[in-house]
Amino acid sequence: MLVANKIMQLFEQPVVLKGQEFYVACSIGIAIFPRDGEHVVQLLSNADAAMYRSKDLGRKQICFYSPEMNDKLLARLTLENDLRRATNKNEFEVYYQPKLSLATGQIVGFEALLRWHDPMKREIKTIELISIAESSDLIVELGSWVLRSACTELVRWQQLGFNNLTMAVNLSLRQFWQDNLI
Questions:
Q1: Residue pair 67/13 in contact by the 8 Å Cβ criterion
Q2: How far apart are CA 64 and CA 1, in angstroms?
Q3: Which H/E stretch holds residue 101?
Q4: Using CB atoms within 10 A of its CB, is residue 24 exposed (0-12), middle (13-18) or buried (19+)?
Q5: Given 50, 168, 169, 176, which is the most exposed site by the fewest CB atoms within 10 A?
Q6: Which residues pair with 107 in a beta bridge?
């Protein structure tokens, strides 16, 4: 625990790149030999499960492995794989939530919201879906799809004569790293 705390303290210091300060969050998962595994692969896998638990608790956490973490990790990996399949099978839809002017009561725009029609009918909260997509490379693909869909729909509405509407689309930080975002 002493070493983990020292590592956490090091991550509290800013990293300076080209004169700019950046802060990096650290999540630590710990597995102990031989209680949590007798082989390197098993220990790493269990430490990884503890690290995911640390992230789920809000990051900047230190978590020790417990056997029930494997069940949660397996459920998370299963859901991530299902999201990948859903992307390929076009199981997502964009809903458009209206934005109203308080002064006039008129619709002035919309916010694009991603929804998944899970064929297994699981109740998956959008926050969980986004969290899993964020922790994988799926967020970039899903975010790009939502952005294209929302822009296409806005153009369609403009062609129908609704010229003064705006469209809000939530972007992931990872999308800003893409050269083709604009």
A1: no
A2: 10
A3: none
A4: exposed
A5: 176
A6: 100
Q: Whose CA is closest to 45, among 31, 26, 28, 27?
A: 31
Is residue 124 packed enough to be buried (19+ CB in 10 Å), middle (13-18) or exposed (0-12)? middle
Q: What is the pLDDT of residue 106?
A: 93
Residue 117 pLDDT greater than 90, yes or no: no
Q: What is the DSSP letter of 103?
A: T
| DSSP state string for 5-24 | HHHHHHHTSPEEETTEEE--
- Which residue do the tokens 């800003």 mark? 176
Residue 120, pLDDT > 80, answer: yes
The pLDDT tens digits of the residues spanning 23-62 come to 888 999 999 999 999 999 999 999 998 998 898 888 789 9
Q: Calculate the CA 6 to chain-centre distance.
A: 28
For residue 17, list its beta bridge partners: 20
**Cβ proximity of 177 and 137 under 8 Å:** no
> Which residues face 98 on adjacent strands?
110
- Tally helices (H) and strands (E) across the chain: 6, 7
Residue position matching structure tokens 């397996």? 74
